[in-house]
Amino acid sequence: MPSIAKIWRRMLCVAPLPLLLAACAPTARQQADYNSVQRSGVSPAIYDKMVHGDPLSVSDIVSISQARVNDGVIIRYIRDHGAAYYLAPPDIEYLQKSGVSQSVIDYMAQTAPPYPPGGPYPVPAVGVGVIFGPGWHHWH
User: Fold this and answer.
1) Phi (first) and psi of residue 88, to 5 degrees
2) Is the pLDDT of residue 124 over 70?
3) Which terminal CB of the chain, N or C, has fewer other CB atoms within 10 Å?
4) pLDDT of residue 103
């Protein structure tokens, strides 16, 4: 007969499993969004990216917009997956000419952190020191 300690250890190992599996499953809203994307005729490659939570490229956004996927679905996907887009003026022009709605473009533009990839540029080091002796100098 197993000891009480062994039974508790088994329960502690098995009990969190359903919670972990549930955290991986899409929400009802996400599943509805994925279904609408699939019905729109988007390429299987883009649909697979979305189902697996991969970031969408600017070209992917154009493709799903041209497939008439609802703007809310696109914006929710970008928001829910924490995608960040660094849109240069040619990217914005490409999105506009390709028929992506201004609301999607605006949302994409606001996802960019305040610094470009790689972070802010380092501040140059400034020499600070004191030299003692004849004719000593002090600088900051």
Assistant:
1) -85, 160
2) no
3) N
4) 96
Could you give the CA distance from residue 131 to residue 34 in angstroms, rounded to a whole number? 68
Identity of the residue numbered 63: S
Cα 103 from Cα 113, distance rounded (Å): 19
Cα separation of 74 and 111, whole Å? 13
Provide the b/e sequence for 126-136 (b: ≥16 CB within 10 Å). eeeeeeeeeee
Mind giving me the DSSP string for 27-75?
PHHHHHHHHHHHHHT--HHHHHHHHTTPPPPHHHHHHHHHTT--HHHHH
Phi, psi dihedrals of residue 138, rounded to the nearest 5°: -130, 125
- How many residues does the structure list for the chain? 140
User: Both tokens of residue 45?
Assistant: 């490659």
Q: Read off the tokens for 1.
A: 């007969």
Given this model, what pLDDT does residue 38 score? 84
Please report which confidence band the pLDDT of residue 30 belongs to, taking 50, 70 and 90 as the band edges.
confident
User: What is the rounded CA–CA span in Å between residue 140 and residue 129?
Assistant: 7
Using CA atoms of 45, 49, 52, 53 in order, give the dihedral in degrees to the nearest 10: -170
| Residue ranges per structural domain of the chain | 27-114
